[in-house]
């Protein structure tokens, strides 16, 4: 992992990818891991990207050392309250409460963000949601800087057994579907959680279906239904632009004396 000494007090400050988990070995061997998929999805970099792994004891930076945060998915469960996860949740809560940085939590990151801010994450009451599904935006999405460019209905890739069962107080629900009402939410002005995976392409999604086939009633049908998800994927580049724009504005504002 890159060291924080490369980022502290330097400009432009990096966009941090917090690595909360690893994909399956066979997928990682051919496609890379979660942080690579996210970095690719962010598009042509306008900011340096820093990857830290709190599971390995990597120190989490102060908010003024970075420009934004993406928290990856994981095969862990938020409800297990692992020490590294609880430390990360406390750090996330501090970052969001300061409202200094754009934050994007994906799947596990989405659930951890909800938990960190006083919501609840736990087992979905029905079953696992997996495959390419239809997601609907809420009326609030039309005014949201990350979601307003999306159509009212779009396809997204999902794989999760747990959910953000209860959103934090004051959270704005941005998207959902019949299975999972909390597919996306925002807290404050610039902290988002998405249950779906904007970083998953079709190969990654089919890989997850294949690995979890024994737990599915009709894995062949789920696999056959996998399709492109360009609207969901567009969130990553849009988030990167939001981070870059806010970082540029912050760095061009003279310090008060």
How does this model look, in words?
α3 links the parallel β3 and β4. The chain is built from seven helices and eleven strands. α3 crosses α4 (108-116). The protein has one domain: Rossmann fold (3-Layer(aba) Sandwich), CATH 3.40.50.880. 31% of the residues lie in helices and 21% in strands. By secondary structure, it is of the alpha/beta class.
Describe the SSE topology.
Blueprint: E1 15-18, H1 25-31, H2 34-42, E2 49-52, E3 68-71, H3 83-98, E4 103-106, H4 108-116, E5 120-123, E6 129-137, E7 153-160, E8 162-166, E9 172-176, E10 184-187, E11 191-194, H5 202-211, H6 219-224, H7 230-252
Parallel strand pairs: 1-2, 1-3, 3-4, 4-11
Antiparallel strand pairs: 5-8, 6-7, 6-9, 9-10, 10-11
Helix pairs in contact: 3-4
Radius of gyration: 17 Å
Structural class: alpha/beta
Portion of residues in beta strands equals 15-25%
Q: What is the highest CATH level, the class? A: Alpha Beta
Specify the number of helices.
7
Show unreliable segments: 1-8
Shape: globular
Biggest sheet features: 9 strands, mixed
Shape-level CATH architecture: 3-Layer(aba) Sandwich
| Number of extended strands | 11
Indicate the percent of residues in helices. 25-40%
* Fold-level CATH name: Rossmann fold
Distance between the termini: 36 Å
CATH superfamily: Class I glutamine amidotransferase (GATase) domain
Order of SSEs, N→C?
Answer: EHHEEHEHEEEEEEEHHH
Chain-averaged pLDDT:
93
* Number of domain modules: 1
């Amino acid at each position: 992992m890159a060291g924080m000494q490369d980022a502290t007090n330097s400009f432009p400050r990096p966009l941090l990818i917090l690595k909360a988990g690893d994909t399956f070995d066979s997928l990682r061997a051919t496609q890379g891991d979660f942080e690579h998929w996210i970095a690719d999805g962010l598009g042509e970099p306008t900011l340096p990207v820093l990857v830290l792994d709190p599971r390995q004891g990597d120190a989490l930076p102060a908010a003024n050392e970075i420009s934004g945060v993406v928290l990856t998915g994981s095969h862990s469960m938020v409800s297990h309250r692992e020490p590294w996860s609880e430390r990360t949740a406390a750090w996330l809560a501090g970052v969001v409460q300061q409202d200094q940085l754009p934050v994007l939590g994906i799947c596990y990151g989405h659930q951890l963000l909800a938990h960190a801010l006083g919501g609840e994450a736990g087992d979905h009451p029905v079953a696992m949601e997996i495959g390419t599904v239809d997601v609907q935006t809420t009326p609030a999405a039309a005014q949201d800087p990350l979601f307003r460019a999306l159509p009212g209905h779009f396809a997204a890739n999902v794989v999760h057994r747990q959910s953000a069962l209860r959103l934090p107080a004051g959270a704005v629900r941005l998207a959902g579907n019949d299975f999972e009402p909390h597919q996306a939410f925002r807290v404050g002005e610039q902290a988002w959680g998405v249950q779906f995976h904007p970083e998953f392409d079709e190969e990654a999604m089919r890989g997850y279906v294949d690995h979890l086939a024994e737990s599915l009633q009709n894995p062949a049908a789920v696999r056959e239904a996998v399709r492109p998800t360009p609207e969901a994927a567009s969130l990553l580049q849009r988030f990167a632009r939001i981070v870059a724009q806010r970082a540029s504005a912050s760095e061009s504002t003279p310090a008060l004396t």
